[in-house]
Amino acid sequence: MTAVPLMVELRERNVVIVGGGHVAERRIHSLLQGGASITVISPVIEEGIRLQWEKGNLKWEKKYFESHDVDGAFLIVVATNDSIVNQSVIVASPPNSLINAVAEADKGNVEFPSFFRRGKLTIGISTNGASPQLSTKIKRELQTLYSEKYEDYLDFLFESRQLIKKSTFDKMHQKLLLKELLSDSFLDKNKQMKAMNWFGKLPKNEIMG
């Protein structure tokens, strides 16, 4: 599968996960962060999934898969260790549904990259199934490179961008100002605060003028 990276809004979207093992548990962890409405189809589930169910964070249908279970699903995660069941889920899936086939990625149309967040910053890594261990290695390296400082930094960039976009400068000047804020020196919290204080003292529509 030739994958094209996309960011998908899953808040309150119907997600059906067929399977209740460790892989399903990992998928659930990611999907809950996105606010998805999750239904798990499996006669048994891992303790971590059970905990989320007991907290009311997902629905659990304690049974074997039936074709109608995926009706209306926006995203379907096929995560059992039975190839026959997995195939039946794929066959029953609605034409427009997104499908993540864990054991056989080429039979689905969506992959779950390894990823991490730093506030508004999300970084995903995928090797298209060639080496999950390499994805994990790269993730660790990037987590060191992009430390927790980037959480405040992204908030600073966001607020600064709003102010600059409201200024009377032309588009080219705005672009240059935004580029200047990408300097590593602005990772310093004190410098961010000084810059924001400066922005706040300037007349409206005359930012940085």
SSE order: EHEHEEHEEEHHHH
Specify the structural class. Answer: alpha/beta
Mean pLDDT: 90
Q: In percent terms, what proportion of residues is strand?
A: 5-15%
Q: Which ranges are low-confidence, i.e. pLDDT below 50, for 5 or more consecutive residues?
A: none
> Globular, elongated, flat, extended or rod-shaped: what is the shape?
elongated
- Radius of gyration, taken over Cα atoms and rounded to an integer in Å: 22 Å
Query: Approximately how much helix is present in the residues?
Result: 40-55%
Largest sheet: spatial strand order = 3-2-1-4-5
What does the largest sheet look like?
A: 5 strands, parallel
